[in-house]
Amino acid sequence: MNNQVHIYDGGMSHDSLNAWLANKTGLIGNSVQSNLLSPNNKTWHQLFNQKSCIFTLFYEDKFKEKEELLNEMKITADAFQREKDVAVCEINIHKFRSFFFDFKIRKTPRFQLNVNNEEILYEGHRNAKDMVSFINSYCDKMRTEKGTLNQNAGIIEEFQPTVIEFLKSPSEKQLKSLLTKESANVYIDIMKSILDHDVNWIYKESERLQHEFDALPSGSIPSDDEIIRFNVISEFISLKEDNKL
């Protein structure tokens, strides 16, 4: 029997771990995806070269609410799976004692957000909804705990006067005024569709998108582009109705 012990200090991706295991054992396992990372000291510090926002839970085995909290962390990690510059991590400091000394940890569980080399402690409620909101506020994101973009994503307030003017009397004049504006593509596309059809087209498009969302398989979420389009369409509808246009 071979009792040789190998220490893994490679990357944190499942592909890296599976490749290492296959190399050491000759066995090939199925890839199990998880958005909640479990780095060691070395790989955790490597994240700072890859991500601008890193939210980490440091905990000990004796913590009685460990499983519930880890589940909330998994939900939080899943919420940011589409954000390539955000990482959510859990670190059992009984396994990696060096974290005790690196951060002078005196109390656990400890929640820490590192944003562009700034360290911010999180002391809010221990649920995914509040943790997602916290990360959003410091990392300039707009995620819900379900992983979708929230209802404000894609909305640009400075465009409101132009949209109102357009809804009053649709013409290419207002559309052209947005051509040089950053992030105006969705607004321009919607205005073009209104010119091709009529103002009431926005209701039909909103209904069509909602039907698409409702028809998604369980566990699936709309694409970010679809959410942004739905949000901007909803903004057009709100401005039309609020201003009685």
UniProtKB/TrEMBL annotation:
<dbReference type="GO" id="GO:0005783">
    <property type="term" value="C:endoplasmic reticulum"/>
</dbReference>
<protein>
    <recommendedName>
        <fullName>Thioredoxin domain-containing protein</fullName>
    </recommendedName>
</protein>
<dbReference type="InterPro" id="IPR036249">
    <property type="entry name" value="Thioredoxin-like_sf"/>
</dbReference>
<dbReference type="InterPro" id="IPR016855">
    <property type="entry name" value="ERp29"/>
</dbReference>
<dbReference type="InterPro" id="IPR036356">
    <property type="entry name" value="ERp29_C_sf"/>
</dbReference>
